[in-house]
Write a structure and sequence with these properties.
Chain lengths: 490, 251
């Protein structure tokens, strides 16, 4: 007899065996989803380890909001941030004028701030080195003397008050040839000499790659985005003083070169961080670079844990719910309305929405995947029951079996094929959606995909995408086998 | 026991139509009654009323002298065997599991089950190996024999048969008709059988009940229906049933 219990048990076992990821007493350091943040996070992690603590780097967790709320909740203990970002994004309503004031505001929220790491990652204007030398330009105020210069700015920079409109007013710039275009095109325009000046971030790797000169903001127009480390107050003093050793150690050129090594030379961030610590702080940090097999295996476990646990929970909830929805039509309408609505929420929005409650990592990923799995299983359970032919249902009733026995011996087995198809759909969707888990620190196959997109590295993207596709096929095959083995109506 | 099945002024309406309209009918113990009539005349609904698949809006239904009610429904169903045209066998269970499901649920012991299966297989003339197969692997005739075994498993006092032979081809049907009549006679069950075939009704029973639009038009033997029709419809119905035979013979 088809037995759904054994299926549930199987799923739970799979989930359980992969979910043993304990993080107790480890200092977790986060980083945002761009290269510079990942390198700084890696440096902080290795430095913490060197100080004798257990540390883990949750890399490329997403944007400022995600990291900030993770820090406040205590899901991570430290992460690299910029003073300008804190002022404009986190405390935008407080009008904080100085770094000293910012430190005080943070301290009141039990957040400790390291000394400035030594660089200011803000907007700068860049020119070809030879072109700048030819005109003798080193400072932004000098641009006013050359009205024929051709400017090409990123579209965002064209619009922002602290972009082109602002510098034009501050420096009284007379240039007429000013175009808005994408960053990539701007670099190419500069390289081919069809543009003279473009906007950049002061630590962009491209500054190294295209050999650009950055102009000094002598009118002090651009806001300051000093890099710092943020930690929670409860992080041990020894770790904090260890991180403070970074104070003033990373200037713009150093950071720019490290970014270039990661983005252009494809050097692993861990290795870049280790060589920085060795050269600058004479710290013998170890760059632990996992082998590809070990990496894939770890991500497979993370991915399976997410998919398995969420799917198991969804089966446990959606099957009974589907049965109730079938027999109680009023309940059914409410249940389906809720499940349908949940399904329409964009995955990314749902994940970010869950972070304030559940923090980062497995919990929000599993809850989100669980919510997405409920509808297909629920609907197919309901359909499976509704599709039982009337004469079979009446024959079953005529045997004089009580409700619950009918459900167990007749109705559920007859609906099993449809229910299993629902679980299968949910599983395949989950395998794909779980790649988004990497955005909130749950790891999985999304991790290399995310890194690959960040570094524009196709090989890395495939390192996540291929196993994910294979896993989806495997899931299809396993469910096909279960169906043939247990559920096929003879 | 004064009666096996009794309908007392029973009315059942589906959403838009009256299926059974103020019907009173008794089936005595050991008696076989054949229900006949055009489609939609309420024959099948009457059977469903007897086993509680539908409930009357008016009137009462008695089975083995007990009024059908929610609290005695399961118990009464155990005293009724129900066979439908399609057999109603559960495709996920073997023939044997189909037959024994209710008995196993009622925790009849192994020995009892084995004895009963052997006895019933003999009775309905089903080869032993057919019991190990799944319904989809059985022939139409075998399926109905299995369905009959399932209906008889708990040794019910009453059999409700809803066109049990309707889906079978003529040869198989003829064989089963013989077997069924022998079975009714030997088991001494009370049988209420629905058919749309007058010859079959006459073959099984001296007690034919002709229905039309939810009402009983006439009850009597085949002879009675021909010789003393209660109204014109009875003659028309009998004639229509005989018509094809007659025409075929004339040609």
């Amino acid at each position: 007899m088809p037995d759904l219990r054994s299926l549930c048990i199987l799923l739970m076992l799979v989930a359980q065996s992969f979910s043993s990821v304990a993080l107790a007493a480890t200092t977790v350091i986060g980083s945002k989803a761009f290269t510079e943040s990942v390198i700084l996070g890696e440096i902080a992690t290795q430095l913490t380890k060197e100080a004798g603590f257990d540390a883990e780097h949750r890399r490329q967790l997403g944007g400022t909001r995600v990291l900030w709320s993770a820090l406040v909740r205590g899901d991570i203990q430290c992460y690299p941030e910029y003073t300008g970002t804190l002022r404009t994004e986190i405390f935008s309503n407080r009008n904080i004028s100085s770094d000293a004031e910012l430190r005080e505001v943070l301290a009141r929220q039990s957040i400790w701030t390291s000394e400035s790491l030594g660089f200011n990652n803000t907007y700068v204007l860049g020119m070809r080195r030879d072109r700048a030398a030819e005109l003798g330009i080193t400072r932004m105020s000098q641009l006013a003397e050359h009205p024929a210069l051709r400017f090409g700015f990123s579209n965002e920079f064209m619009e922002r008050a602290d972009g082109w409109p602002g510098i034009r007013a501050r420096y009284r710039l007379p240039q007429q040839d000013v175009r808005g275009l994408s960053h990539d095109l701007a670099y190419r325009g500069i390289e081919s000499r069809s543009l003279d000046v473009t906007d950049l971030y002061s630590t962009d790797a491209e500054i190294v790659h295209y050999d650009l000169t950055t102009l000094i903001d002598d009118g002090r127009f651009f806001p300051v985005y000093d890099a710092i480390m943020l930690c929670r107050d409860d992080v041990p003093d020894a770790i904090r003083s260890s991180l403070n050793r970074l104070g003033g150690q990373i200037d713009e050129t150093t950071m720019r070169k490290m970014n270039a090594r990661a983005a252009l030379d494809r050097e692993p961030e861990a290795q870049i961080a280790a060589s920085f610590l060795r050269d600058r702080l004479h710290v013998s940090a170890e760059a632990k670079v996992q082998s590809r097999i070990a990496r894939i295996w770890q991500r497979t476990r993370e991915h399976l844990a997410m998919v398995g646990i969420s799917l198991g929970l969804a089966v446990l909830v959606a099957v009974p719910l589907g049965i109730v929805a079938f027999y109680r039509r009023g309940v059914g309408r409410v249940v389906f309305a809720i499940a349908d609505t949940l399904q329409t929420l964009p995955a990314l929005a749902l994940l970010v929405f869950l972070i304030p409650w559940l923090g980062i990592g497995y919990a929000p990923a599993i809850v989100a995947l669980f919510l997405y799995s409920v509808l297909p299983i629920l609907r197919n359970t309901h359909t499976g029951l509704a599709d039982i032919p009337r004469d079979l249902r009446e024959s079953a009733e005529a045997l004089g079996l009580p409700r619950i026995a009918m459900l167990r011996y007749i109705e559920l087995p007859l609906a099993a094929r449809s229910m299993l198809a629902g679980v299968r759909t949910a599983a395949v969707i989950n395998v794909g959606t779980a790649t988004l888990g990497a955005l909130i620190g749950a790891g999985g196959y999304g991790q290399p995909i995310l890194t690959g997109i960040r570094l524009d590295d196709t090989k890395l993207i495939l390192e996540g995408a291929v196993p994910a596709a294979l896993l989806a096929l495997l899931v299809q095959w396993v469910f096909g086998w279960i169906e043939r083995r247990w559920v096929t109506a003879k | 026991m004064s009666c096996a099945i009794a309908f007392e002024h029973v009315t059942h309406r589906y959403q838009h139509a009256v299926a059974v309209n103020d019907v009173s009918l008794r089936v005595e113990p050991g008696e076989t009654v054949a229900l006949i009539g055009p489609s939609g005349s309420g024959k099948s609904t009457l059977l469903k009323l007897a086993i509680g698949l539908v409930w009357p809006q008016q009137g009462r239904v008695f089975v083995t002298d007990r009024a059908l009610a929610a609290d005695n429904l399961l118990e009464i169903r155990h005293r009724i065997g129900y066979v439908i045209q399609s057999g109603g066998l559960f495709p996920h269970l073997s023939a044997l599991d189909n037959v024994t499901l209710a008995a196993r649920y009622l925790r009849r012991d192994r020995q009892w089950l084995d004895d009963r299966i052997a006895e019933l297989a003999e009775l309905v003339q089903l080869p032993r190996d057919a019991l190990d197969r799944f319904p989809n692997d059985l022939s139409g005739g075998q399926r109905q024999r299995v369905s009959l075994m399932r209906a008889l498993m708990l040794d019910p006092a009453v059999l409700l048969l809803d066109e049990p032979l309707g889906a079978l081809d003529p040869m198989v049907r003829h064989g089963l008709q013989e077997d069924l009549r022998r079975l009714f006679q030997s088991l001494n069950k009370s049988v209420l059988l629905v058919t749309h075939d007058m010859a079959e009704a006459a073959f099984f029973s001296q007690n034919i009940v002709l229905m039309r639009e939810g009402k009983i038009v006439q009850r009597g033997s085949y002879r009675d229906l021909i010789d003393a029709p209660a109204e014109q419809f009875v003659s028309d119905f009998v004639k229509a049933q005989r018509g094809l035979h007659a025409e075929a013979l004339d040609a």
